[in-house]
Amino acid sequence: MINIGQINSLEVMKVENFGLFLDAEDYGSVLLPGRHAPDDVELGQKLDVFLYFDSDNQLSATTEKPIAQVGEWGLMKIEGINQTGAFASWGIKEKDLLIPFSEQRTRFRAGQQVLVYVYTDKASGRIVGTTKFNKLLDKVPANYKRNEQVDLIIAERSDLGYKAIVNGTHWGMIFSSDVFGKLFIGKRLKGYIKDIREDGKINLSLQKVGVAKMDDLSSKIMDTLEKKGGFLPLNDKSSPEAIFNVFRASKGTFKKSIGGLYKQGKITIDADGIRLSE
What we know:
The protein is mainly beta. Helices cover 14% and strands 38% of the residues. Strand 6 (73-81) and strand 7 (85-89) form a beta hairpin. The longest helix is centred in the last third of the chain and has 17 residues, at 211-227. Belongs to the CvfB family. Residues 3-64, 69-132, 145-207 form the S1 motif domain.
């Protein structure tokens, strides 16, 4: 089945000097221009190509990888604006992605970086983008468990912290008190369900919450020490950034974890770092 706006594996039907003709099934053949074609291609060989409609509404193929395919979010730069809407660079040189005015939460300016959801407009059949995420999210009740690991995309900054897209289906909030490390719009990372409020809103954490986060980090510290020959150049005086880069945890949680391991006699805490006890 051919999926427009996504990467497809298509068979080479014909080889010409100017490019390759690929079998697009019900859509007939599609040209992959020579500038995108790999060398030494043989008939019958399958190539992974991205399919889209060009400015003349003709099916086109490229080996360029888009920032986001249909059904995905991606951080894109606004290249220009006209009477139709804004046009974002989505990784395909021959064509920018249209974000119609009707699909913009706020008006954009050229050069702005914007998180965009890519979809196929049912009325026109065109591949377009939207920043009106509310119509895509929270359509089903949140059915998560406390400390469940989820995929996050940072979508908005607010006075309370950061709004994030949870597993591509729900809104969630990371409050400022739970933020550590560098967060920015469009960043993808793992997170955890902190709790689900009575109104169905989701609170998120970047590390496990409660006793579980301590146990989880303590295990990671011990595993890392064993892999590193029994020594790590980190201790309770290390910077939050250095700790986050290694364990993706806050300095506070790290200090409590190594304190607990020290009391159990599993490690020593020295001026230059921590060591496994002999």
